[in-house]
């Protein structure tokens, strides 16, 4: 009898230990994956007492909590995560949700112009995603109909956010567009991942982007000769040229080329043709991104500005081109800087990529 009792006690202890083990495993499974910011300058993250503190820019602070009753530090706006519904204001923001396979969280967007993604278009058609209007002209009734937990905004746009504030919905700035490092912009996928509970996926996705980008960058860094490249074209009497510290200028450098502008400007400026010609006349390549109905050509480029044929890159047929009406550039490029880099390397240094490489965004204009 005593032996039987002893066996029962041992059995109960084993069950209890098993249950405790399960609880420990459950607790571990609920642990939030850590987020380390390596390249992005627009946000920082630190975890404190079960609360994730996220600082965006110089003034916006958010405390991401699992328990809506949690007490957060003064100066922080509480956001219960994961959020279930949100509104995206830009294609850059939308690209983060696309690569995270999280379109179901997006309930509102500003426009479907030049939208390629079939799933997003279908959701708009089915009414699962509403169009809330253009920046500065938002329809608050449609905003409320989307029932967003937060709205991701882009302070660089025309605004209209003051009216949205009246709804009481938390506005979260997404500053990916300000990043000067291509990997810094792509790293904002981690930012979105924190809000929708996909930290692990975001970390894994970014690790892949980072690895591929840096591998290509290292190859291009060893080239013996670096061609020169100019960018942009004439619009309304001026040539908008990005600055030497711009995201695009960094991509050119990482692809083994030299951009014709070497100043410290980030956004660039509008220049007269004569000034830009002085910089670009002898550039080996000329990069152009625009929206053109039909197939763009050298004839169309000359028709838009007859003096274009004076540039060396025009004469030698070395114009690098992407048509946004045929390619989902802004819709997905922000999370594919490695692909953009490879496109450019394939043009500047084709010996560094496989012979049958097919570009995604940019190719030489025929």
Structural class: alpha/beta
Shape: globular
CATH superfamily of the largest domain: Nitrogenase molybdenum iron protein domain
The description of the largest β-sheet is: 5 strands, parallel
The end-to-end span amounts to 93 Å
DSSP helix fraction: 25-40%
**Tally of DSSP helical segments:** 14
Query: Rg, please?
Result: 25 Å
Per the CATH scheme, the topology name of the largest domain is: Rossmann fold
Number of domains: 2
What's the architecture of the largest domain in CATH terms? 3-Layer(aba) Sandwich
In terms of per-residue confidence, which ranges show pLDDT below 50 for 5 or more consecutive residues? 1-30
Taken as a percent bin, the fraction of beta residues is: 15-25%
Write out the strand line-up for the largest beta sheet, numbering strands in chain order. 7-6-5-8-9
> In the CATH hierarchy, what is the class of the largest domain?
Alpha Beta
What is the count of β-strands? 17
What number is the mean pLDDT?
89
Model description:
This protein has about 375 residues and is an alpha/beta fold. About 35% of the residues lie in helices and about 20% in strands. The chain contains 14 helices and 17 strands. It has helices at about 1-30, 90-100, 120-125, 140-145, 160-165, 180-185, 190-195, 200-220, 245-255, 275-280, 300-305, 310-315, 330, 335-350; strands at about 45-50, 50-55, 60-65, 75-80, 85-90, 105-110, 130, 150-155, 170-175, 230, 235, 240, 260, 270, 285-290, 320-325, 365. The strands form four sheets. Strands 7-6-5-8-9 form a five-stranded parallel beta sheet. Helix 2 links the parallel strand 5 (about 85-90) and strand 6. Helix 2 packs across helix 7 (about 190-195) and helix 8 (about 200-220) packs parallel to helix 14.
């Amino acid at each position: 009898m005593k032996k039987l009792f002893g066996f029962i006690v041992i059995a109960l202890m084993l069950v209890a230990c098993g249950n405790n083990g399960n609880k420990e495993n459950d607790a571990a499974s609920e642990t939030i994956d850590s987020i380390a910011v390596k390249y992005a300058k627009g946000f920082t993250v630190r975890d404190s007492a079960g609360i994730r503190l996220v600082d965006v820019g110089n003034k916006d602070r958010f405390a991401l909590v699992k328990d809506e009753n949690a007490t957060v530090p003064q100066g922080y706006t509480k956001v219960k995560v994961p959020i279930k519904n949100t509104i995206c204001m830009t294609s850059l923001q939308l690209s983060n949700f696309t690569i995270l396979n999280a379109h179901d969280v997006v309930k509102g967007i500003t426009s479907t112009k030049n939208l390629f993604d079939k799933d997003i278009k279908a959701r708009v058609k089915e009414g699962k995603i509403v169009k809330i209007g253009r920046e500065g002209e938002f329809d608050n009734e449609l905003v409320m109909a989307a029932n967003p937990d937060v709205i991701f905004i882009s302070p660089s746009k025309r605004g209209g956010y003051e009216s949205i504030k009246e709804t009481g919905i938390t506005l979260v700035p997404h500053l990916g567009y300000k990043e000067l490092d291509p990997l810094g912009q792509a790293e904002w996928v981690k930012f979105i991942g924190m809000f929708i509970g996909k930290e692990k996926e975001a970390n894994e996705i970014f690790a892949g982007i980072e690895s591929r980008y840096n591998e290509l960058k290292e190859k291009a860094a060893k080239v013996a000769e670096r061609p020169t490249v100019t960018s942009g074209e004439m619009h309304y009497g001026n040539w908008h040229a990005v600055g030497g510290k711009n995201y695009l200028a960094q991509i050119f450098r990482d692809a083994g080329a030299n951009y014709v502008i070497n100043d410290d400007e980030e956004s660039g400026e509008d220049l007269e043709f004569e000034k830009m010609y002085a910089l670009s006349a002898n550039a080996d390549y000329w990069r152009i991104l625009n929206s053109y109905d039909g197939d763009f050509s050298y004839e169309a480029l000359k028709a838009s500005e007859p003096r274009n044929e004076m540039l060396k890159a025009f004469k030698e047929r070395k114009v690098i081109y992407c048509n946004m009406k045929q390619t989902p550039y802004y819709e997905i490029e922000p999370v594919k800087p490695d692909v953009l880099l490879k496109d450019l390397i394939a043009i500047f240094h084709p010996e560094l990529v496989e012979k049958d490489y097919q570009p995604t965004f940019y190719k030489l204009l025929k």
